[in-house]
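Researcher: We're teaching a course module on how sequence relates to structure. For the next exercise, students receive a sequence and then see the predicted structure as tokens, so they can try to spot secondary structure elements on their own. Here is the exercise chain.
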Amino acid sequence: MTKFMLLMNMDGGNCDVPMLEWDKADMDAHMKHLGDSIERLRKSGELVEVNALTWPKHAKVVRATGVSSPVLTDGPYAESKEVLAGYTLIDVESEERALEIAAEQSSAPGPGGVPLEQPIEVRRLMDADGDLEDY
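Model: And here is the predicted structure for the students to work with:
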């Protein structure tokens, strides 16, 4: 088994309207799709962890200066579509399976039930020293 992290940004895919501005029914359908997907992963034993993140305004950047106390800032700020919204950590048999799960998450419905086609970044977790050389 191999662990992959599926990273979901706030990029709305083919929808320019932020989810908090959708009709309640559309938002409920979107969350149900994602919840059903997560429940299937839980039942199959492929789900390791899933979490949504707080809004970017709560993020801090810490930089060790090596001279004084670490520097804590609120920025720099990414474009909103580049901000990480949440992640799903899975443990699956193959990269192909990880991509299949990411495609299912990407197809979550948006306004009017139209699949968002939201980009999901799929990253394999390092599991051996050789991964450091696989640059």
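Model: If you want an answer key for the exercise: The helical segments are 24-44, 95-106, 130-133. The two ends are 22 Å apart (CA to CA).
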